[in-house]
Amino acid sequence: MAAKAEPGKSGQSEGLGSRLSQIKQFITEVRQEFGKVVWPGKKQAIMSTTVVVILVILVAIYLGTVDLVLGKIVGAILR
Predict the structure, then answer these.
(1) Domain-by-domain residue ranges, the chain?
(2) Rounded to an integer, what distance in angstroms lies between the CA atom of residue 42 and that of residue 39?
(3) Cα torsion angle, 40, 42, 46, 51, sign
(4) pLDDT for 19-32, tens place per residue?
(5) pTM of the full predicted structure?
(6) Secondary structure class of 52 (helix, strand, coil)
(7) Which CA distances in Å does 17 have to 13, 14, 22?
(8) Hey, is 36 helix, strand or coil?
(9) Hey, which end of the chain has fewer CB within 10 Å, N or C?
(10) Phi, psi values for residue 50, rounded to 5°
(11) 3-class DSSP assignment, residue 66
(12) Which of 14, 34, 16 is closest to 24 using CA atoms?
């Protein structure tokens, strides 16, 4: 079964001017989207960061404990 060629994807490279206009359009659209972003305030950013740091510490303690216990169990079995 022969595959149909998609428009604009004929395997030929597009001209440099076309690529530059696409890049310019992309940058313009990115700037527009950044204008729509609602950035968190300082207080909210600090609170979110605090929550993340605390959760990372708790998960690290949990995983360290599990690793220690399982290591001792495996060590006792292998003796």
Answers:
(1) 40-79
(2) 9
(3) negative
(4) 999 999 999 999 99
(5) 0.56
(6) helix
(7) 12, 8, 9
(8) helix
(9) N
(10) -60, -45
(11) helix
(12) 16
